[in-house]
Amino acid sequence: MSQAIRFDYSHARAFVQSDEWEKLAKPIFQAHEMLHKRTGPGSNYLGWIDWPVQYDRAEYTRIKRIAARIQADSDVLLIIGIGGSCLGAKAALDFLNHSFYNLLPASKRSTPEIHFVGNNISPVYLAHLMEVLEGKRVSINVISKSGTTLEPAIAFRLFRDWLEKRLGREEARKRIYVTTDKARGALRKLAECEGYETFVIPEDIGGRFSVLTPVGLLPIAVSGVDIDALLQGAADARMNYLVPDIEENPCYQYAGIRNILYGKGKQVEVVVNYEPRFRSFAEWWKQLFGESEGKDGKGLFPASAEFSADLHSLGQYIQDGVRLLFETVISVKRPAIDVRIQPEGEEVDGLHFLSGKTMNDVNQKAFAGTMLAHVDGGVPNLVVEIPEATAYYLGGLFYFFQKACGISGYLLGINPFDQPGVEAYKANMLALLGKPGYELQKAELEVRLRGK
Ligand SMILES: O=P(O)(O)OC[C@H]1O[C@H](O)[C@H](O)[C@@H](O)[C@@H]1O
């Protein structure tokens, strides 16, 4: 099976001694064994490893059928979810669809507009969205593994009510699709009570590893993307990244080198793209690595930058600021479209040297020039390259990073599959809101807020 992803760490090699690289072989092998033999921490959450070939075929067929129904009867699909229950779908939608998907006229897009809500607590965002939806045929896909996350729960309460007021309870029921745990949580109970169509988030797959389950697949399919190709890309990646040998496995090389760089004080990994369509992918990647590795006082801080825009804002810091960064550039070899630059007439803009070149030529040179400048400035650069921005290659990328994350977490000596730290803010918020059972905590927090 040919490697769809090219991983190039030659621009980081100068920062790594050869014995450091060699010393990694054993820990990488051990991390591989822990993942595949399910002997490491968090081993109840490894369902994603074989998911691309072991998914529920009947449910998959139903996803396609329901996606076709939503395409036929809706102007808008509203996705309600947060974190792992929205970032993967958003990553894929932005990466694979038209840059202005929602703005395309009906003559250019036969699939519904897709909007996200429940991923913040902003009343302004919510009210503005309701204005945009007025007069449109709306379907809702509410996604929550726990079924109890406050942000999507509030949004769902409001939009369910919004839909029922317009269509009546019966009609609204036919337009609400619930993706949640197969047995647990308030959302599952409600779905059963109301008779909503439901999809299952597998118990052994955590939110940030769930993009290839119904969590991502239903919204992605509604937008018209070929989900067979997406899964195939992931299934091929599963085979491609199976060898427990760092010399032969680019996914493990990525995990290994970021671990070495981290050990040398490079505490921030900046994922960089030169294509705005990668923006949401970076958000997905940030949750994947941030929640997986940031614990026990350890972990690289995952950040992102979009070049060349951010070269004009963050560029100065990256080149000359505190030397705590390394960059991972995600690059697409051939853009779907290219545009030729043809300066004409008198050379008033001084751009005749670009004559005959394309935008992609310029973008690639910006990439190469920036990479070398940053390496000279002490910022190691890693490159993850795919040939084209297609569903197949995106499926491979999702899998590449998920697996690298599992290996990387084990190299770091933490459990990459839990997120205990996320609860701290939730408990405070619920206490401050007066949830029964939190009375003591509420009183203590209020004293602190008053500054006493
Ligand atoms: O799918 P849900 O249960 O609603 O969870 C949504 C998100 O919120 C939580 O707080 C977790 O930290 C995330 O890992 C999760 O993806």
From TrEMBL:
Keywords, in A-Z order: Cytoplasm, Gluconeogenesis, Glycolysis, Isomerase
Keyword Phosphoprotein: no
CC terms in the record's Gene Ontology section: cytosol
Gene3D superfamilies with a match to the protein in the record: Glucose-6-phosphate isomerase like protein, domain 1
Catalytic activity: alpha-D-glucose 6-phosphate = beta-D-fructose 6-phosphate
Localization per record: Cytoplasm
GO MF terms, alphabetically ordered: carbohydrate derivative binding; glucose-6-phosphate isomerase activity; monosaccharide binding
Pathway(s) it belongs to: Carbohydrate degradation; glycolysis; D-glyceraldehyde 3-phosphate and glycerone phosphate from D-glucose: step 2/4; Carbohydrate biosynthesis; gluconeogenesis
EC number: 5.3.1.9
Active site: 291, 426
Top-level division of the source organism's lineage: Bacteria
GO annotation, biological process: gluconeogenesis; glucose 6-phosphate metabolic process; glycolytic process
Annotated family: Belongs to the GPI family.
PANTHER family per UniProt: GLUCOSE-6-PHOSPHATE ISOMERASE
Function according to Swiss-Prot or TrEMBL: Catalyzes the reversible isomerization of glucose-6-phosphate to fructose-6-phosphate.
Protein name stated in the entry: Glucose-6-phosphate isomerase
Source organism (scientific name): Brevibacillus panacihumi W25
